Amino acid sequence: MTDSLDPDTAAAPPITPFERLAGEAGVRALVDRFYDLMDLEPVFAGIRALHPAILDGSRDKLHWFLCGWLGGPNHYVERFGHPMLRARHLPFAIGIAERDQWLACMMQAMAEQGVDPALAQRLAESFFGTADWMRNKGG
């Protein structure tokens, strides 16, 4: 009979995407690169225009949200409650172009931050589902 508390027989908990990204520091670096690209690259001008002139608050909120979403601490929920992503984004016109710019910006940020390609692909699929759900206009 095996004891499930025996460290030799107990299964190790799965490593979360949060841990694979090196925790809070890694998530912060990814978010910062995402917003730096949004500021720097003309191809992302459409989504940049939907944000405030100063991105500090947006950086913090995305960082806090992603920490929890990726399996780390729930900083966003602790500060603001349930994310209600769609409701919070309804004031902004989000169509296919904005969705695709957001995704391309995040994909570039993940590539530049050296996110493992298999993890980046899994995250991209999840990001796509969420970003597509945020659309509130045609085109």
Based on the model shown, name its key terms:
139 residues, mainly alpha, Globin-like
Q: What form results from the Cα inertia axes? A: globular
Biggest beta sheet summary: none
Global Rg: 17 Å
Structural category: mainly alpha
Tell me, what is the CATH class? Mainly Alpha
Spans of 5+ residues with little confidence (pLDDT < 50)?
none
Per DSSP, the total helix count is 8
Which fold name corresponds to the CATH topology? Answer: Globin-like
Mean pLDDT: 93
Spell the H/E element sequence: HHHHHHHH
CATH architecture: Orthogonal Bundle
Describe this protein's structure.
The chain has 139 residues and is mostly helical. It has one domain: Globin-like. 62% of the residues lie in helices and 0% in strands. It is built from 8 helices and no strands. The chain has helices at residues 17-20, 23-40, 45-48, 56-69, 75-80, 85-89, 96-112, 117-134. It is globular, with a radius of gyration of 17 Å. The N and C termini lie far apart (61 Å). The mean pLDDT is 93.
Secondary-structure topology with pairs:
Blueprint: H1 17-20, H2 23-40, H3 45-48, H4 56-69, H5 75-80, H6 85-89, H7 96-112, H8 117-134
Helix pairs in contact: 2-4, 2-7, 7-8
Task: Write a short abstract of this structure.
With 139 residues, this protein is mainly alpha-helical. Helix content is 62%, strand content 0%. It is globular.
